[in-house]
Amino acid sequence: MGLEYLWIVFFCGLATAIIGKAKGSSFWIWFLVGAVLPILGLIAVILSRRERDEPERQCPNCLKTLKLYVQVCPRCGAELYLPDPRAVRHPGVRG
pLDDT higher for 8 or 95? Predict the structure, then answer.
């Protein structure tokens, strides 16, 4: 019984990690989530958003490209406010 459970935990963690990595997130973090919460972790990663498709903008001080939801630049510490809509880049949208 214990060995079967370990196989289920391992493969749920692996499946969760592969899907999370494909969506642009960390493989190891999703592996841990999938291993600790086997079925719930898999459901969570399927329902999570893709990081690659999030709108981006540049920090006005250091010009680092950041996701739109970031409020403080991790490089220079500048507080970021909503930019001009023309300054927002949408990676998932072509045109």
Answer: 8
